[in-house]
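Entry: RRM domain-containing protein
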Amino acid sequence: MVFFFFSEVSYARPSSASIRDANLYVSGLPKTMTQKELEQLFSQYGRIITSRILVDQVTGVSRGVGFIRFDKRIEAEEAIKGLNGQKPPGATEPITVKFANNPSQKTNQAILSQLYHSPNRRYPAPLAQQAQRAISGGVSRTLHLALHHSCQ
């Protein structure tokens, strides 16, 4: 039996309310905007931890959507105030900047419930315990566990 676990590498930061929910969703970006240009646009509001522009997997062309994670929530709030509804260089329409939706506890609980009641589940306690631990790692790890156990 082989287990594969994937995780993101991120900066070590203290856990506090000041850094929670500092991830922004940006839509309406010009298709020609690069990740570097996106970071330049947002960097005036604070320290950027991660940034990403979504691209079409087949064509490699930008979808005009991106994510920016700031070091602190207050920085993200300032970026929303300063950039939401503005036209960045190269844009013909204003961009939308808002907080990204985070998976809720209800979503995680629904996934756990489906795992627990799955007919393919072979290991009652360990899976439930592993899935419960995976909540802190996010939905993707929980789903990974579910896929792994249901494929056996």
